[in-house]
Amino acid sequence: MALGYVRPARPEDAGEIARIQLATWRVAYRRILPRHVLDNLDEGYLARQWTAAVQEPPSPAHRVLVAVEQAESSYLVGFTASGPADAEALAPEEPAESLGAEVAAVTDLLVEPRWGRRGHGSRLLAAAVDHWRTDGFTRAVAWAFDGDAATRKFLTGTGWEPDGAARALDVDDMLVPQLRLHVAVPTEPAQG
């Protein structure tokens, strides 16, 4: 078991969050998204977006959390971002009110592949759930690519289930199917 912990992201983490995002996407999504799209992602642009997300979140319930690996030195190895469900969490043609104010949406949950299977994803998810509970959310949703078996397996292994919603993202004229998963937010912290 790795020694690690989760903490709120800081503005100075934005560059490392962007690097982790690119490294993870380029490995995990190389068979899902067109290669030229992955190759042309701009790390600087992503870092600026993460700086804004950390410094100026749309609400107090919008959070970016980072996973830290502790060894001889400490390294950021993953992150998650979530907040109240908005239009991005909806399926096509789904009415805006269908998710409700008590639903949190995960927009990102990534652990750099070389740091996988060391408990970082579970720690990130547990920390997010603690925040969702504090913020009064009773349910959470997350979109996963159909072709991303690792994310689907991780989420379903922690109690998430498909909720029947599906969509396809248009990525450079290629439709990439996704399915939405959901989970009830426990009212009490897990014992253990």
Automatic annotation (TrEMBL):
The keyword Transferase applies. It comes from the Bacteria. Residues 4-182 form the N-acetyltransferase domain. One of its GO terms (molecular function) is acyltransferase activity, transferring groups other than amino-acyl groups. Keywords: Acyltransferase, Transferase. InterPro entries: Acyl_CoA_acyltransferase, Bact_Acetyltransf, GNAT_dom. The keyword Metal-binding does not apply. It holds the Pfam family Acetyltransf_1. This is Acetyltransferase (GNAT) family protein. It comes from Micromonospora pallida. The lineage of its organism: Bacteria, Bacillati, Actinomycetota, Actinomycetes, Micromonosporales.
